[in-house]
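Predict the 3D structure for this chain.
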Amino acid sequence: MLTILYQDDQMLAVDKPPGLLTTPSPMASDRVTCMSLLRDQIGSWVYPVHRLDRATSGVLLFGRDSASAGRIAVWFRERQARKAYLALVRGWVEPEGEIDHPVEGAHPGERVEALTRYRCLGQIEFDHPVGRYTTARYSLVEASPVTGRRHQIRRHFKHLRHPLLGDPEYGDTHHNRFFRERYGLRRLMLHAWLLEVPEAGLRIQAPVPQDMRAILEDLGMLVPTG
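Done. Predicted structure below.
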């Protein structure tokens, strides 16, 4: 059963677990998706407003009907909605910054604009060799994508040479293995923890999942709570 974070007569927000598709995809054979689970849970159709990658957990919004979904989608198209993600990345990032770097579009050879803002929430260094380095450094960041491209945060932090932990596609194999052996990590360390639409007075938060929280706390990171 999905955790419902917010609901009214137009929308529902759920806490999507990692490993679950938002909606059916022609590129996957999954019969169970977040949309189908929520539909069965509340006994009526729901309509996606935005999406989260399969590997990402956190706040996911659905409209109760197609008209409501269309109105709510305007928040995202016109950039009225602020989305904040928590991510654990390799290395020490700057205190804050912007990543303004085009990413691959939907068509071969296409490049589309993409912008992510971030701030560093904490850093840790292990006196332990990983890969070719004698120590291992990590940063907890809050990332706020201004645009909404596929795998944007994951691609952008790879571009900065600070890939996300637990990312099999864009991550660092050595550090992923280190976290798998040390913590049993089997998930992407990326969580959509906050969605705000100030003009609508909307603020929805998804608590950091226990598996991710346990790792961050063991690292001595201060996990945001609100």
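The chain is about 20% helix and 30% strand.
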